[in-house]
Design a protein that fits this description.
Blueprint lengths: L9 H17 L17 E6 L12 E3 L6 E6 L5 E7 L5 E3 L5 E4 L7 E11 L6 E3 L16 E6 L7 E12 L9 E2 L2 E7 L1
Parallel strand pairs: 6-7
Antiparallel strand pairs: 1-3, 2-10, 3-10, 4-9, 4-12, 5-6, 5-11, 7-10, 8-9
Length: 194
C-alpha cells in the first residue's frame, strides 16, 4: 500500500494564516477599573474624671471645686478640629429635691447662686491651639449658659487625631435664708466638629 502525501498549496496556507491573523486582531482585550470609596465620618470621644461634686453646705458660706482634681479629655478625628459647648442640664438652676426651691445661676448677690468657669484648656497636637471663648477666658466665674454655648475651640490636624483636655470649676454661695434641702443640677458639655 502506498501512502499518499498531500501537499497543501502555499497560497492556501497563506490564506488560512491571514484569516487567523484577522480573526485574532479583531478580538479586543478590555480592562475595567473598579474604584473603591471609603468615607470616614467625624468621630469624637469624651472622657472625664471628677466632674461630679457633692458639697455639705452651711448658710452664709461660699464653696468652690478648685482644690479638687478633675479633668476632661476630648479626642476627635476631624482635621478641622472641634468646639466644646456648655449648657445647664436640665436648666441653669440647682433644684431642691424636697422643697422645689431653686438656686439660680449667678456670680454675686445676697441670694444663693452657683456659677462655673473654664480653668484651663490644652491641645495635644503639635502646634495646635485650644482657645477659650471670649467671656470665659478670664479667671472669673460666669453664669451657666441656658443653651449650648461655645466655650473652647480646638484647632485640628490633617495628619493626626486631635486630642485636648480642659478643666472647669464650680462655685456655690449659700445665703443665710436658703431652705434646707438637697439641690441638684449640672452642666452638659458637648463636642461639635468644626
Amino acid at each position: 500500500m502506498k501512502n499518499k502525501i498531500i501537499y497543501l498549496p502555499v497560497s492556501l496556507l497563506t490564506l488560512v494564516t491571514a484569516l487567523s491573523a484577522v480573526a485574532l486582531s479583531s478580538y479586543r482585550v478590555a480592562a475595567v477599573t473598579s474604584d473603591a470609596t471609603v468615607t470616614v465620618s467625624d468621630a469624637c470621644g469624651f472622657t472625664s474624671s471628677g466632674f461630679d461634686w457633692v458639697i455639705s453646705a452651711v448658710g452664709g458660706q461660699s464653696y468652690n471645686t478648685e482644690s479638687e482634681t478633675k479633668s476632661a479629655t476630648v479626642t476627635c478625628n476631624d482635621p478641622d478640629g472641634f468646639v466644646v459647648k456648655a449648657a445647664g442640664n436640665p436648666d441653669t438652676d440647682l433644684s431642691g429635691n424636697s422643697t422645689g426651691l431653686d438656686i439660680a445661676t449667678g456670680t454675686s448677690g445676697s441670694s444663693s447662686y452657683w456659677a462655673f468657669k473654664v480653668t484651663s484648656a490644652t491641645n495635644n497636637v503639635s502646634g495646635g491651639t485650644a482657645t477659650i471663648a471670649s467671656g470665659y477666658n478670664d479667671s472669673d466665674y460666669h453664669n451657666i449658659p441656658a443653651s449650648a454655648t461655645p466655650i473652647i475651640t480646638y484647632s485640628g490636624s490633617a495628619t493626626s487625631v486631635t486630642t485636648g483636655s480642659f478643666r472647669t470649676d464650680y462655685k456655690v454661695s449659700i445665703s443665710t435664708t436658703q431652705a434646707a434641702d438637697t439641690y441638684t443640677g449640672g452642666v452638659e458639655y458637648t463636642i461639635v466638629a468644626n
